[in-house]
Amino acid sequence: MTGQRALGVDVGGTKILAGVVDREGEVSRQSERPTPVSTQDEFLAAVDEVVEGLLDHDVQAIGFGLCSTIDQQAGRAVSSVHIPLHDVDFRARMSERFNLPVAIDNDGNAAAIAEWKLGAGQGASHIVALTLGTGIGGGIVIDGVVQRGRWGMAGEFGHMVVVPDGRRCECGNRGCWEQYASGNALVRDARALARTNSPTAYQLLETVGGDPDNITGPDVTAAAIQGEPTSVELLADVGTWLGRGIANLAAALDPEVVVIGGGVSAAGDLLLLPAQRAFSRTLTGRGFREEARLVLARFRNDAGLIGAADLARHAMIEPPDSAQFGFWPRRRQRRASKARRRRESLRARAQS
Ligand SMILES: [Zn+2]
Questions:
Q1: What pLDDT is stored for residue 318 in this prediction?
Q2: Are 58 and 127 contained in the same domain?
């Protein structure tokens, strides 16, 4: 089965990103569309359309990374605050519809899998992967095993409270980490500063035609890379909050590598260096312990779809739990168990 490709689909709150991925993580064909968030039917129709547009004879399995709580055992998408998906037998539905093996996972886990197996976390047994976008997506690998938690909720780092009574978050709490260290936080800070009419924001404002509401994350990043001092500062603030939060994660999880991805990571060292400084300054036991390496993601925006495809491909090639997890369509399941029996009998014969 080597060389065959899988389709990876990253379903986020704002867009659906999909691509055909080979075993090295190279994406050959890709498509993208906004995520419909009005009704579940409309949402599922859009996902179907994206998949249909990329399927060909070469695609052997489909993996989905969903911004939803996932019941891995049952293959269900349980609930999501970002997409209209509530208690859906997602894996069975997709597997029946496309007659292919289907794997599903949370999008943060999918991104972590991509960076751990093929990207910036390669070779490490303990990693934490963060995706900075609308919020902060997270994934944990400990001793080479993806940690999903008892109810599929592990890695929701974005909602750790870092500032008691701080900024209001859409989860209902105040002071969540993602209100300070995400792409959205960067944009909100930049716009707020621009609205004060402060001379420090003039240069940044000029680049977007004078309207504070036009400022986007990529605008701030581009200006900072050009050396615009206010944008450099705004990114450093986000980096500082990032480093503090990562120090908390290190206290709990003791990772070897922390991979930082998502749109904001395009800022490179402008984000990474302040994060490293704050991390080293906040880390518990500093000076007396090994420190995790903070590195930029290899895949940035494609990590979710590449990880989802990898999950699908591996489950297809080595499907140890595939029957238990209902990974295969029934027809393929019979074929797989026949092949497995054959392999076992050959192995038994070789050993005797
Ligand atoms: Zn929150």
A1: 55
A2: no
> Which CATH number does the domain housing residue 325 bear?
3.30.420.40
- CA–centroid distance, residue 104 to ligand 1 (Å): 24
Residue 108 is predicted with a pLDDT of 93
Q: How far is the CA of 95 from the centre of ligand 1 (A)?
A: 33
8 CA distance to ligand 1 middle (Å): 28
Q: Taking 90 as the threshold, does the pLDDT of residue 82 lie above it?
A: no
Nearest partner of 9 among 316, 309, 326, judged by Cα: 309
242 and 113 in contact (C-beta within 8 Å)? Answer: no
- 159 CA to middle of ligand 1, Å? 4
Number of C-beta neighbours around residue 24 at 10 A: 7
Give the distance (Å) from ligand 1 centre to CA of residue 41. 28
| Alpha-carbon 239 to chain mean position | 19
pLDDT at 349 over 90: no
Domain housing 269:
120-296
Tell me the CA–centroid distance for residue 171 and ligand 1, in Å: 4
Asked if 50 contacts 9 with a C-beta cutoff of 8 angstroms, the reply is yes
Quote the number of domains for the chain: 2
Whether 196 and 138 share a structural domain:
yes
Range of 2-6, 163-167, 315-319, 343-347 with top mean pLDDT: 163-167
In this prediction the pTM is 0.86
**Span from the CA of 170 to the centroid of ligand 1 (angstroms):** 6
Rounded to a whole number of angstroms, the distance between the first and last alpha carbons of the chain is 27
Q: Are residues 203 and 309 in the same domain?
A: no
CA of 84 to the centre of ligand 1 (A): 19
| Residue 178 CA to ligand 1 centre (angstroms) | 7
CA of 244 from ligand 1 middle (Å) equals 17
Same-domain check for residues 153 and 243: yes
Which of 63-72, 133-142, 341-350 has the lowest average pLDDT?
A: 341-350
